[in-house]
């Protein structure tokens, strides 16, 4: 599997919702899941090629990316440090920052409600948590950046010059990946990110995890950067947490149509940042990760 590194910077605030609320606050994820990048690349691929609107074109393009690419989560980069999540004895960390320090740097929120004159509908008051596009570190303002990877499972679809072959067309990966829109609250201008440098080929995920024959090994006491699906024969011990992964996808049937109308469950997963208590080999190219959202499955040795 060839690895392509993509580095983005945020042009506007980001709200990566996942259904978690704290009172009236709609909370955001602190990283960009691979499924969000998959959706954005699908839209861009279609818009670069589509001459007339046809929803089937989106389905076809999305399936093409599912079958040929593995897309990792994209993690924040602060002052050139990739903030990979990790459980420690002192608590949860993002790169060199404690959870509290990280939140104080990247998080903000705004409050709104549906209004009539001098009234607010009961239950309509809500607060949206978001990742700031401009962050302040030691009195210096920086762009919030993100780093992640695309794994090429089929070398026939990406040429050495990083041109993507799709149907009878050939498009530079840069053209498809450069400017994308992710997450929610887009009507307020949220979700715009752009590549901060050209994509490039590399050998390791985040400089730490080398891929060999579509597999990587998480060393003992090392945090996983991937979701790890808990299958029936899962027996690895870990220190961390689990999460039921659910996605909202496009659907078109006789009674329902549109984006986010189909609920897709990917099962219970060990979350990124969890510490594996023994060497753990992960398969990144299987029926679970074929969707291209960075879900890995343990390979028993």
Topology of this structure?
Blueprint: E1 2-10, E2 17-22, E3 25-28, H1 34-49, H2 55-68, E4 69-71, E5 75-78, E6 81-82, E7 85-88, E8 91-94, E9 97-98, H3 99-106, E10 107-112, E11 115-116, E12 119-120, E13 126-131, E14 134-137, E15 140-143, E16 145-152, E17 163-166, E18 169-172, H4 173-177, E19 179-181, E20 192-195, E21 200-202, E22 204-205, E23 209-210, E24 215-218, E25 227-229, E26 238-239, E27 242-252, E28 257-270, E29 275-276, E30 280-283, E31 295-298
Parallel strand pairs: 3-13, 25-31
Antiparallel strand pairs: 1-16, 1-20, 1-21, 2-3, 4-16, 5-6, 5-16, 7-8, 8-9, 10-13, 11-12, 14-15, 17-18, 19-20, 22-23, 24-30, 25-28, 26-29, 27-28, 30-31
Helix pairs in contact: 1-2
Give your account of this protein's structure:
The protein has 301 residues and is mostly beta strands. The chain has a single domain, classed as 2-Layer Sandwich (Alpha-Beta Plaits), CATH 3.30.70. Helix content is 14%, strand content 45%. The chain has four helices and 31 strands. The protein has helices at residues 34-49, 55-68, 99-106, 173-177; strands spanning 2-10, 17-22, 25-28, 69-71, 75-78, 81-82, 85-88, 91-94, 97-98, 107-112, 115-116, 119-120, 126-131, 134-137, 140-143, 145-152, 163-166, 169-172, 179-181, 192-195, 200-202, 204-205, 209-210, 215-218, 227-229, 238-239, 242-252, 257-270, 275-276, 280-283, 295-298. The strands form nine sheets. Strands 1, 4, 5, 6, 16, 19, 20 and 21 form an eight-stranded antiparallel beta sheet that branches. A six-stranded mixed beta sheet has the order 24-30-31-25-28-27, with no helix packed on it. It has a four-stranded mixed beta sheet with strand order 2-3-13-10. It is globular. It starts with a strand and ends with a strand. Mean pLDDT is 83; it is low at 288-292.
């Amino acid at each position: 599997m060839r690895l392509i590194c993509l580095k983005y910077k945020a042009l506007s605030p980001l709200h990566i919702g996942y259904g978690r609320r704290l009172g009236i606050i709609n909370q955001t994820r602190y990283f960009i899941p691979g499924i969000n990048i998959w959706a954005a690349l699908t839209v861009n691929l279609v818009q670069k090629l589509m001459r007339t609107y046809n929803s089937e074109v989106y389905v076809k393009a999305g399936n093409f990316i599912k079958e040929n690419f593995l897309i990792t989560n994209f993690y924040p980069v602060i002052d050139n440090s990739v903030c990979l999540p990790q459980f420690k004895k002192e608590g949860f960390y993002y790169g060199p920052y404690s959870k509290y320090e990280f939140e104080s740097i990247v998080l903000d929120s705004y409050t709104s409600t549906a209004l009539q004159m001098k009234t607010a509908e009961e239950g309509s008051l809500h607060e949206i948590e978001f990742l700031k596009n401009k962050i302040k570190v030691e009195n210096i303002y920086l762009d919030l950046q993100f780093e992640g990877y695309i794994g090429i499972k089929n070398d026939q679809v990406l040429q050495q010059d990083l041109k993507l072959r799709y149907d009878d067309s050939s498009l530079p990966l840069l053209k498809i990946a450069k400017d994308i829109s992710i997450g929610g609250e887009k009507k307020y201008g949220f979700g715009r990110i752009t590549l901060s440098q050209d994509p490039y080929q590399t050998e390791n995920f985040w400089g730490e995890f080398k891929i060999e024959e579509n597999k990587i090994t998480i060393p003992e006491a090392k945090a996983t950067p991937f979701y790890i699906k808990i299958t029936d024969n899962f027996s690895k011990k870990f220190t961390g947490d689990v999460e039921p992964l659910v996605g909202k996808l496009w659907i078109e049937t006789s009674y329902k149509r549109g984006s986010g109308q189909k609920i897709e469950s990917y099962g219970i997963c060990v979350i990124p940042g969890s510490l594996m208590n023994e060497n753990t080999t992960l398969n990144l190219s299987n029926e679970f990760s074929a969707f291209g959202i960075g879900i890995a499955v343990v390979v028993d040795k």
